[in-house]
Structure formats: structure tokens, C-alpha cells
Design goal:
Elements (H helix, E strand, L loop, with lengths): L1 H17 L2 H4 L5 H14 L3 H5 L19 E2 L2 E2 L16 H29 L4 H15 L5 H15 L3 H14 L4 H14 L2 H14 L4 H13 L3 H14 L8 H11 L4
Antiparallel strand pairs: 1-2
Helix pairs in contact: 1-3, 5-6, 7-8, 8-9, 9-10, 9-11, 10-11, 11-12, 12-13
């Protein structure tokens, strides 16, 4: 509180001189007094004013509307600190590669299946056709799980033991595990055919051919089922499909001629 008293003491000569009319017209008398007052006031500037740092984003006064901990042009707020920024997202490349692996494997299998089917359609001898058929069957059963294979073997054992109903049940369990495998639908269709369930056999073989239309064995089995159902036209059509995929099934066309007679009657 010493500064206001000093300022008042410095103003006293000016106030004293302005009380007299002779001194009021002499304005030049105020020049040295004003200079002395400014100099003394500068020397006695409060220490707190000299030491006060410049306003920066770090020490500026806080805004009453700013959240605590958030930076504003007026400094730190008074609300809770802001949540940290989320870290970088993981690279989705491994997931995309993992998802595309089964698709690539299926595409490669389909290409190999088509190549072997073309070779079978141009086989010159029954021995060559049999060798290619073995390769095709190994390719079709390549992705069966161990449990599914066990159920298939048990179904074959049941069929050999004259238990076709048990064989159908075993193949049904295998289909429940891998319903996308056409070879399993063909297998259950065969078991149903032996068990006398002709309608169920046609249904299963239709499912198999919808998934694998290049399977000559499915077409041949379907022809036999349709013949048992006394549908000569359907049996002939299925057999022609089978011969188109594997001509060595009937190289002499003996069965083909028999099915034509059943479908259209004896030629005159």
C-alpha cells in the first residue's frame, strides 16, 4: 500500500501550484513534475506485476465453462480429465487371409475335380477309367473329418452285416456333422436304396448331384433307383448323364439299349 501514498505525494506540488492563478497559465511547470512522477512510478512498480508471467496456454486463467483437465485457450479446465485416445486398430490382414483360405482351397479342389472329370470322360479303357475314378473319390473325401470317416466305415459294416437301417442311421449322423459334403449324401442315398426307401434315396441323390453334378457314380445310382421305381424315362436320362461323364460304364451300350426299351417300348 506504499505505492498509492507515493503517487499522492508526487501530485501535491502540482495541486499546490494550480491553486494560485499566477501559476495556472504556466503549463510548462508541469513538464518536469510529470517526468519525475513517471520515473518514480516506474521504479516503484509492484514486484508481483514485474514477476507475473505472460499469459500462455499453460498458465492462463481457467475458463469456468471448460471441462476439468481439458486444454482450452484459457488454460486447464476444472472437470475430470479427458479419456485417452484409443490405440491403433489391429491389422485385419490375418483375418482376411484366414477367411480367404477355405475359399481358395475350394476353388483349387473344384478346378482339380473338373480336370479329372474331363480325363474320365475321355478315358479309352475301363482300367484307365477305374484309376481316374479312384483319384476322384479320394478328392471328394479329402475334407472329411476323422469322426465322419468312422461313421462311414461303420455304415459299410452295417450294410455288409445285412443291417441297412443301421447303415442309414450312421450316414445320417455323418451328414449331421458335414452336410456340405456331396459324397455323404450319395452314401446315404445308397443305404436307403438298399433298405428299400426309394423316395428317400432319390431325395438324397438329388442333394448329392446339386453339390457335385460331375459325379458319375451318383448319376448311375440314381438311374438304378429310378428303374426300380419303374420310371423308365427318368432312369434312361440319369444313365445318359452317367455315360457322358464315364463312357466306360457301358462301353457296349447294352444297358443303354435296355433302358430305351423300358422308356419308349420295343421298336417296331
Amino acid at each position: 500500500m506504499a505505492e498509492p501514498a507515493l503517487n499522492g505525494w508526487l501530485r501535491m506540488p502540482a495541486m499546490y501550484m494550480t491553486r494560485f492563478p499566477a501559476c495556472r497559465g504556466n503549463g510548462f511547470l508541469f513538464v518536469p513534475l510529470l517526468a519525475a512522477w513517471v520515473g518514480v512510478a516506474t521504479l516503484h512498480t509492484p514486484a508481483c506485476a514485474q514477476d507475473m508471467p505472460a499469459a500462455t496456454p499453460q498458465n492462463a486463467p481457467a475458463s469456468p465453462l471448460a471441462p476439468r483437465g481439458a486444454w482450452t485457450p484459457y488454460g486447464q479446465g476444472t472437470a475430470t480429465p479427458a479419456a485417452p485416445k484409443p490405440g491403433p486398430k489391429p491389422d485385419p490382414a490375418p483375418q482376411s487371409h484366414a477367411a480367404s483360405a477355405p475359399q481358395s482351397r475350394s476353388a483349387a479342389q473344384a478346378a482339380l475335380l473338373a480336370m479329372l472329370a474331363d480325363q474320365l470322360a475321355h478315358a479309352k479303357t475301363p482300367q484307365d477309367a477305374h484309376t481316374i475314378e479312384d483319384k476322384l473319390e479320394a478328392l471328394r473325401t479329402q475334407h472329411l473329418s476323422p469322426t465322419t470317416r468312422l461313421l462311414m466305415h461303420r455304415a459299410e459294416s452295417d450294410l455288409a452285416a445285412q443291417k441297412p437301417d443301421d447303415a442309414v442311421e450312421d450316414m445320417g449322423d455323418a451328414l449331421a456333422l458335414q452336410p456340405d459334403q456331396a459324397v455323404l449324401w450319395r452314401g446315404r442315398g445308397q443305404m436307403r436304396f438298399v433298405a428299400g426307401n426309394l423316395y428317400g434315396a432319390v431325395t438324397d441323390l438329388g442333394q448329392a448331384l446339386a453339390r457335385d453334378p460331375l459325379d458319375a457314380q451318383s448319376w448311375s445310382l440314381l438311374s438304378s433307383v429310378e428303374e426300380r421305381r419303374n420310371d423308365g424315362a427318368a432312369a434312361l436320362q440319369a444313365w445318359q448323364k452317367a455315360l457322358g461323364l464315364n463312357p466306360m460304364l457301358d462301353p457296349t451300350h447294352k444297358r443303354l439299349d435296355q433302358l430305351k426299351i423300358k422308356a419308349f417300348g420295343q421298336p417296331t
